[in-house]
């Protein structure tokens, strides 16, 4: 498991603005900071991928360099994940994309279930999958989305990236997706009875795109 804020970097600044109740009023800045963190995660994940030697013709000769052997497939959970996903796409600009529409459906007794309405993906067999979602609260949405997306595919490897995660969410993902590698911006200890991360940052989807009705 990789935790970005365990070491000081410019990522701390972007995350602090995302958490700040005053800075959050600037919706465009909130989205941009999410995108920036996606770019940083993409760079960090790229270090773990397999590379091959290639020779590039320049105007003055030939330059040897190592390039990625396989492009990943980038997936995200609608709608909150879109700016985060764009950050990954900015760096893995030859990658394909996949999308999952999942949401919490609250029941009368106060708990909730995860409903998946829509999946758009290509063949994932033998592919590297990077799935991103800005918040990992209970982890149930992530696990459900990954299982729906993967179906009967046999992927090469899976990376899960999130900006803020709870300890409970991390434990749930590890228990249900043991082969996935977790990439986390920051870990918060508390999870409320309504499954909101504290201190967290609020509802990432609402802050990025406006409150839903």
Key terms:
Rossmann fold; 31% helix; 213 residues; alpha/beta; two-stranded antiparallel sheet; single chain; 8-stranded mixed β-sheet
How are the SSEs placed, and which strands pair?
Blueprint: E1 2-3, H1 10-19, H2 27-46, E2 51-58, E3 61-68, E4 73-78, H3 82-91, E5 96-106, E6 112-120, E7 128-132, E8 135-136, H4 140-150, E9 157-166, H5 167-176, E10 181-188, E11 190-191, E12 197-198, H6 204-209
Parallel strand pairs: 1-10, 4-5, 4-7, 7-9, 8-9, 9-10
Antiparallel strand pairs: 2-3, 5-6, 11-12
Describe it for me?
The protein has one domain (2-209): Rossmann fold. It has six helices and twelve strands. The chain has helices at residues 10-19, 27-46, 82-91, 140-150, 167-176, 204-209, and strands at residues 2-3, 51-58, 61-68, 73-78, 96-106, 112-120, 128-132, 135-136, 157-166, 181-188, 190-191, 197-198. Helix 1 runs antiparallel to helix 2 and helix 2 packs across helix 3 (82-91). The model has no long low-confidence stretch (mean pLDDT 93).
Task: Compute the number of structural domains.
Answer: 1
Q: Treating each run of at least 4 consecutive H or I residues as one helix, how many helices?
A: 6
Instruction: State the end-to-end CA separation.
Output: 36 Å
- Label the structural class: alpha/beta
Instruction: Please give the number of β-strands.
Output: 12
The low-pLDDT segments are none
Largest sheet: 8 strands, mixed
Reported CATH architecture: 3-Layer(aba) Sandwich
Task: Write down the Rg.
Answer: 18 Å
Shape: globular
Mean pLDDT: 93
Helix fraction by DSSP (H/I, runs of at least 4): 25-40%
Proportion of residues in β-strands:
25-35%
CATH class: Alpha Beta
* CATH topology category name: Rossmann fold
> What order do the SSEs take from the amino end to the carboxyl end, as H and E?
EHHEEEHEEEEHEHEEEH
Organism: Pseudopedobacter saltans (strain ATCC 51119 / DSM 12145 / JCM 21818 / CCUG 39354 / LMG 10337 / NBRC 100064 / NCIMB 13643)
Protein name: Uracil phosphoribosyltransferase
Keywords: Glycosyltransferase, Transferase
Pfam families: UPRTase
């Amino acid at each position: 498991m990789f935790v970005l804020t365990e070491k000081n970097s410019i990522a701390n600044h972007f995350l602090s603005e995302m958490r700040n109740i005053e800075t959050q009023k600037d919706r465009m800045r909130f989205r941009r900071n999410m995108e920036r963190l996606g770019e940083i995660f993409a760079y960090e994940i790229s270090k773990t991928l397999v590379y091959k030697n290639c020779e590039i013709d320049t105007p003055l000769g030939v330059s040897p360099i190592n390039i990625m052997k396989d492009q990943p497939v980038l997936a995200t959970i609608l709608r909150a994940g879109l700016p985060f996903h764009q950050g990954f796409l900015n760096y893995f600009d030859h990658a394909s994309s996949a999308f999952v529409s999942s949401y919490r459906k609250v029941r009368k007794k106060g708990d909730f279930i995860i409903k998946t309405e829509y999946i758009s993906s290509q063949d994932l067999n033998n592919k590297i999958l990077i799935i991103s979602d800005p918040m990992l609260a209970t982890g149930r949405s992530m696990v459900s989305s990954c299982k729906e997306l993967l179906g009967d595919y046999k992927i090469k490897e899976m990376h899960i990236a999130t900006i803020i995660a709870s300890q409970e969410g991390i434990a749930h993902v590890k228990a249900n997706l043991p082969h996935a590698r977790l990439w986390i911006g920051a870990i918060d200890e508390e999870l409320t009875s309504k499954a909101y991360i504290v201190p967290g940052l609020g509802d990432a989807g609402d802050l990025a795109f406006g409150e839903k009705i």
